[in-house]
Write the structure tokens for this entry.
Amino acid sequence: MNNVLKLLPNEHLRSYLFRIHSQSPFGAFSKTVARFGIDTYTASSATTLQKYDYQLASLVSNDAFETWKKHGDGNSMLPFMDKNELKATQSCFAHEPLQLSTIYASTVHNSLWRFCEDCVEEDYTNYGTTYYHQPHQLAGVFHCYKHSKPLITACNSCGYQLKNISKLPIPPINLKCPACNNRMVGDEGYFDEFMSTIEKHSFALNQSMFAWTLKDVQQANLKYIGFSGDNTKTLAFNRTCTDWYKDISVSIGSHALQRYFSNTKQIDCITVSQTMRTTRMFLADSKNKFSPPLIYLLALEATKKI
Ligand SMILES: [Zn+2]
Ligand SMILES: [Zn+2]
């Protein structure tokens, strides 16, 4: 552990080396990360586990796993892992090769970085620097956890999006877009009551205060669909599931779905996202890969509204 490195309050694990880099005279970012023994990486805020999460957490803490939980995606991901995935995650933090693969993570809206204009001002006053906050990057979240302001993620003038933070290693104090220099403003896109509930659940999940786990969700959905584990291999089951996917998509609504996912499409005049469609939603023995935790929160709330 290198004592020079410290995470700021609620700082996102994958962003702190960019902050260090922005304050250092060492030229390219690849040189900064090489100094700390990490392969260079493009920091994405998509909800996944990567080898560099372990490496980055080890640099700032003697308990890398706890650090990943609080400053990375650990708290959001762990409740929705099956036994094998939990084992793979623990192995990764025991410095073994990473064997957890995820699917569709980058189709979720939080693959773009976000920041809050009030936090920028406060952080600069309190710490002399701005930085990317972990709770701002959560899937399902569109507002600041402290100030409730809509988060900034793109430039309305030129369309620049914060896909990775190499151009903007720390949020700009003057909020100027790195591409066109115009002032970036908060994302005032579609947001309804349902999305507000999901936002609250996402914050709770991030603080280990969301009661549901993968098993609970699977049991509840299976019950709702009206089947038991014994008759899930039938054609009738597949048809009923297809109807259920359509029902929850209608319940969430096209505007909200388009805000959450980049891969929505129209099927039979209904807006759907392939990301939501996985047997992990209801089968304990599903062979589908780890999916973004957000889909379970959406399915739970959407089913209540059907
Ligand atoms: Zn804020
Ligand atoms: Zn711009």
The CA atoms of residues 168 and 178 lie 7 Å apart. Residues 193-305 form one domain. The chain has a mean pLDDT of 94. Residues 235-252 form the longest helix (18 residues).
